[in-house]
Design brief:
Elements: H1 2-18, H2 28-37, H3 53-67, H4 77-83, E1 94-97, E2 107-111, E3 117-119, E4 124-132, E5 136-143, E6 147-157, E7 164-165, E8 170-174, E9 186-192, E10 195-197
Antiparallel strand pairs: 1-2, 2-9, 3-8, 4-5, 4-7, 5-6, 6-8, 6-9, 9-10
Helix pairs in contact: 1-2
Length: about 200
């Protein structure tokens, strides 16, 4: 009988520590009463391990404060980096085909005057500068914070792989190169952490 009472008390105490609700007939009040009645408190017979109303209110208050505390729920650094980024428009013109991630069109198509300059949208390094069958003369720039900009269907490329460029610096001229084109325009893409972004959300054309 004594062993059962001891086990009952231990289980009740562990439940309190874990914040679990007590079963009917196995409340910590019962356990503490039994300990006092049997003189097994080891000098602490008057200690009550039950959760008071004040303790419950304190727990609720702490949880509420943590829910709205930015130090607890920090804003991801990636989100901060993207929000603080400043972009220069790659070209001034008219957007004729918008962004459509669900349709596989991961950028925007912009028309402008023939041979208009194409500019780097941010500081960065050229990681690709060459020809592809479908998109013609393409240049790709790696920027800080895992940002990548891509410029397709150019008439001519002005930068080579490995060159460092500044925001607003001329990198190409608008053209009509490649098989997937229906006239002179710039196809521009912006990628962040491996995912495409809608350029019109971050710059004007």
């Amino acid at each position: 009988m004594e062993i059962k009472r001891r086990d009952k008390f231990i289980n009740s105490f562990q439940s309190i520590v874990r914040g679990e609700d007590q079963e009917v007939g196995a409340t910590p009040e019962d356990a503490s009463v039994e300990m006092r009645a049997n003189g097994n408190g080891n000098g602490n017979d008057n200690v009550n391990f039950s959760r008071s109303d004040e303790d419950s209110l304190f727990r609720v208050q702490v949880e509420r404060e943590e829910r709205f505390n930015l130090s607890v729920r920090e804003v991801p650094q990636s989100a901060i980096a993207l929000e603080s980024a400043f972009f220069v428009s790659p070209i001034k013109g008219l957007v004729i085909n918008g962004f459509g991630e669900t349709t596989g069109h991961f950028g925007v198509d912009i028309v402008a005057a023939p041979s208009s300059r194409v500019s780097a949208v941010m500081d960065g390094m050229v990681v690709f500068s060459g020809w592809t069958v479908e998109t013609g003369y393409v240049i790709q720039i790696q920027h800080p914070n895992n940002l990548i900009s891509i410029y397709k269907h150019n008439e001519i490329l002005l930068k080579e792989i490995g060159q460092v460029v500044k925001a607003g610096e001329a990198i190409a001229r608008i053209g009509n190169s490649g098989e997937l084109t229906s006239g002179p325009h710039l196809h521009f893409e912006l990628w962040y952490n491996g995912s495409p972004l809608n350029p019109v959300d971050y710059m004007t054309f």
